[in-house]
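Internal tracking record. Fields below are filled automatically when a chain is submitted to the structure queue. Please do not edit lines marked as system-generated. If the sequence contains nonstandard residues, flag them in the REMARKS field before resubmitting.
Queue: standard
Priority: normal
Entity type: single polypeptide chain
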Amino acid sequence: MGSEEVIYALEQGDCELLSQSLFNRLEGSAFGKFPELEVLYREICKAGSGEYRMTGSGSAFYLPVSTREEGLEEMRCLASLRKLYSCEVVYCEGNVRGTSYGNYRSEIDEG
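SYSTEM-GENERATED OUTPUT FOLLOWS
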């Protein structure tokens, strides 16, 4: 898939198509060099509700979602992994004109 599919998915607000249209050519190499990264990736995909993608050289994994509520639910699914792997689960919401970052830790932590 190419950039046309990504643009179409963004225009339609279709997060599933967007996720399917995105890829990272470094993913295979990063997983080969750091097998623990692939283990984490598989755990995230198993715990979550979609096919996550790797950013850049592997500093993060992400999943496009349509609504804040959908994002919160996804983050709740990953809360236990945050503790297990000592990593953060954060959100990024907005569009190309303005994006905000943060976390909903108080809303997703168990107790």
